[in-house]
Amino acid sequence: MKKILTTPIKAEDLQDIRVGDVIYLTGTLVTCRDVCHRRLIELKRPIPYDLNGKAIFHAGPIVRKNGDKWEMVSVGPTTSMRMESFEREFIEQTGVKLVVGKGGMGPLTEEGCQKFKANICAACDFPGWLCGTGGNSSGRD
């Protein structure tokens, strides 16, 4: 089945998703790696962005300063299992509804998704620059 999700995502948007479904996401996707997870869970420091109903992507962005703004150049997924020890509590504390990553995750994340009505998805292969600012191929080889 094909499913289109738009942020903010509600619990009922995830109810009929099954293993093998293809998920398309529109809206905000926040990159969030182990440093972000540690900041919230281990260091008890707030994240300066409201993730309630949002989607996070276990990825490392490459950014550059362009004038007074930051520009996304490319995004590369990182192994999601690195966040396993944090993810259940992260889902609970942030209200994030969709976790997108590389590879699988473990029982703590599964428990968090079930209890707090969230879901995890595997990122398919794609050119990292597609996630760059603008998300188009103009001027790129």
UniProtKB/TrEMBL annotation:
Q: Which reaction does it catalyse?
A: (2R,3R)-tartrate = oxaloacetate + H2O
Keyword annotations of the record: Lyase
Q: What is its EC number?
A: 4.2.1.32
Carries keyword Lyase?
Answer: yes
UniProt GO molecular function: L(+)-tartrate dehydratase activity
Q: Which residues form the Fe-S hydro-lyase tartrate dehydratase beta-type catalytic domain?
A: 6-118
InterPro entries in the cross-refs:
Fe-S_hydro-lyase_TtdB-typ_cat, Fe-S_hydroAse_TtdB_cat_sf
UniProt family annotation:
Belongs to the class-I fumarase family.
Assembly and interactions? Answer: Heterotetramer of two alpha and two beta subunits.
Q: What name goes with this protein?
A: L(+)-tartrate dehydratase subunit beta
Q: Which organism is it from?
A: Escherichia coli
Q: What is the lineage of its organism?
A: Bacteria, Pseudomonadati, Pseudomonadota, Gammaproteobacteria, Enterobacterales
